[in-house]
Amino acid sequence: MSLVFSYKEDFLLESGKVIQGFHLTYTTWGHLNQEKDNVIWVFHALTANSNPAEWWPGLVGPDAFLNTDKYFIICVNMPGSCYGSVSPLSTNPQTGEPYYHQFPLFTTRDMIRSYQLLQKSLGISKVFLGIGGSMGGQQLLEWAVEDPFLFENIVPIATNAFHSPWGIAFNATQRQCIEADPTWQQQSDTAGIEGMKVARSIALLSYRHYDTYNQSQAGYTAESAGKPVDEQVARAQTYQQYQGEKLARRFNAFSYYNLSKAMDTHNVGRNRTSAQQALQRVKANTLVIGINSDILFPPAEQAFVAQHIPGAQLEIIDSLYGHDGFLLEYDVITRLITNFLQQHLQQSHTVTATQALIN
């Protein structure tokens, strides 16, 4: 079910700017039980939407691990995205026109603070499981630090405690592509779209891996040795072009530009002494999952998160797909999370039984 939460009051952002109200589009499945302890909060990545059944079909559904018949599942479209929440294409109440270039930056911390208002409006005081990959995992970690007692269990996947100079450089280069588009300064929904296509093709290089392209996009083989050079290189080249065109059909450059900036701001340690100390605030049972071939969020970043969250477990998946493995390796992810939750359920039963004996 797709719903809209509207907040009518002024909302102070980390930047010091104030936005005059906002709205969030979110999707829910299932029903809250009487105890309201069956909530699973899913956090989506950069260009996804609030319906993980579309982009995580192996994990969400009636027969999937995130069972929509058993749990109350909620996913919010992050502010700045073009899938229904407040964004650069929304109307600026001060001008009556779309925000476009004047849209204020929502950091990942701003995002989860907007989600907290939705959470309270729904009467949710406890979340059984929080799960998210990439930028979704960044939001999850930020919230688990901000409100340590909200989540019972969290599973951040292919993510980090703060965005690296390497990741920021990828995003900055993509924004430069958009800025180089002659249409970027236009007050139009399609401004910068050609630049965004190039930006997306750059992003794909960070989402995948050398071996991914060798397996799926290789143009030179023994059979192609006698063919013209342009035929040999066409496969990888057209794939890059296709990915840019594909995103342009469903996204816009303003959202892409703003969300990449939001990712760059991610740092759970900002104004909290350090990332290490911030992570130590987390009280949830934590399973951190990484992808061994991820060059954008390398496993060392997940190891850092697991090292500083008390009692956290770390699992690294062997995958050909690079960073995108967090979307594609759902069978392995399901197994890891199932084992993790069963382990903590058994520990909980043991503690309860021990307390009963003591009492």
Automatic annotation (TrEMBL):
Substrate binds at R200, D324. Residues 39-329 form the AB hydrolase-1 domain. The active site is at S134, D294, H323. Its EC number is 2.3.1.31. It comes from the Bacteria. Transfers an acetyl group from acetyl-CoA to L-homoserine, forming acetyl-L-homoserine. Belongs to the AB hydrolase superfamily. MetX family. This is Homoserine O-acetyltransferase.
